[in-house]
Amino acid sequence: MVVDTAYYETLEVSVDCTAAELKKSYRRLCLIHHPDKLAPGADASKFQAIQAAYEVLSDPEARESYDAFGPEGRGGGGMGGGGGDDFMDDLFANMFGGGMGGPPPRQQQKRQKTQTRPSEVEFKVTLEELYMGKEKSIAVERTRTCGSCKGTGAKPRAQRRTCIKCRGAGQVHALRQMGPYMTRVPVECPNCDGSGYSVRSQDHCKKCQGARSTKEKKKIDFFVERGSLPGEKIVLKGEGDESPDSSSPGDLHIHLLLIPHSTFTLHPSPHGPTFPASLHTTLSLTLSESLLGFSRLILLHLDGRGLRVTQPAPGEGGVSLLEGLLPEKREDVKGPEETDEVELVERRKEEEVSSLGFVSFSFEPLR
After folding, report:
1. Residue 337 to residue 297: CA distance in whole angstroms
2. How is 116-166 classified by DSSP, letter by letter?
């Protein structure tokens, strides 16, 4: 018993029509309702409905599922079609000088090698490593084409067979509900995982078990360039994942993350990422240093140099600028040179005011 007759009515055939009767009616309706035959601006939805109906009814398995369960198919997941692909492309290539905008007939399809997507990883670095530059290494787990079977998934002398579901195309078409009609979309063949062929389980490669690829761990060395900034990306060509269907291995993208520093904070230049950044730190002073001035080696820079800050005139606090403390990353970078900022914070205490002449010169970096 047929639970739904909408597709049969669309194609103007009976529910017990033969395959020949179905094709004859389908071709007649296509010649009438094809968009190239319609007036400009006319509704082409009728042609889409005819195409969707024929996709189902021309495939024996899809037709049986439609008759038993309706357009949603068994389990409500939609039905895979494909019986009319070759016929439709051949028909309209002859009639209108081209196909329907879909893939060419299966016997003419050739699988294209694709580029593997890059692998993205994060790597933590210290401020000293960004400032001075550093040779680093990272351990990654990546996918690689099986070296034993060369990506075939089969034993050396095993016979590979063309996938019976996609006929070697690597793709099948599934019907999806689009408004009031069903539309056809290409999806990866679930039977062969898009390879276009299948291998019997007893003929699977022992190393990859038919998966065609394996996982490997590798330690990769790279260099953090002097003057790099947090968030920058280091690209390592060909060090990412590899697929048996790819033309070459993908790249590895390493994104730099900054470990917080105990003394300095890094501030990118307001002029943009191509300009040198600056280092900021905050120091606390005694009242006598703030009022009488001072000149002291107050802290160590990232490369181990001692930094001297001189404040000759009394002040209520402020910012002391030290020239050129963060190196430019590239010699071709142009623009104003950024500097460090050392903020001088005054601490007022009654005991310091009463014994101003006896206050020692000391500093305490704020954490």
Report:
1. 23
2. PPPEEEEEEE-HHHHHH-EEEEEEEEEEEE-TTTTTS-B-TTPPPEE-TTT
- Spatial separation of the C-alpha atoms in residues 263 and 237, rounded to whole Å: 36
Alpha helices in the chain (DSSP H): 6-10, 19-33, 45-57, 60-69, 85-96, 127-132, 287-292, 350-354
Count of structural domains, the chain = 2
Among candidate residues 81, 108, 135, the one where a domain is terminated: 108
In this predicted structure, which of 230-239, 271-280, 352-361 has the lowest mean pLDDT? 352-361
Angstrom distances, CA of residue 338 to CA of 178, 274, 315: 58, 12, 24
In a domain, 256, yes or no: no
pLDDT tens, residue by residue, 296-350: 888 888 888 888 887 765 544 455 555 444 555 544 433 333 334 444 444 444 4
Asked if residue 123 is part of any domain, the answer here is: no
- Measured distance CA(365)–CA(2) in Å, rounded: 84
Q: What percent of the chain clears pLDDT 70, i.e. is strictly above it?
A: 69
pLDDT digits (tens, 9 = 90+) for 174-188: 777 777 776 778 888
Is 267:278 a contact under the CB 8 Å cutoff?
yes
Handedness of CA 268, 272, 273, 276 (dihedral sign): negative
CA 318 to chain centre: 46
147: pLDDT strictly greater than 50: yes
Which residues form the domain of 99?
6-108
Do the Cβ atoms of 57 and 66 come closer than 8 Å? yes
Partners of 196 in the β-ladder: none
Spatial CB neighbours of 297, under 8 Å, sequence gap ≥ 6? 306, 307, 308
259 within some domain: no
The CATH number for 56's domain is 1.10.287.110
Give 283's DSSP letter. E
CATH of residue 289's domain is 2.60.260.20
The sign of the CA dihedral 208, 214, 216, 222 is positive
Q: Is residue 311 part of a domain?
A: yes
pTM for this model (two decimals): 0.55
248-277 as b/e: b if 16+ CB within 10 A: ebbbbbbebebeeeebbebeebeeeeebbb
Instruction: Tally Cβ neighbours within 10 Å of residue 160.
Output: 15
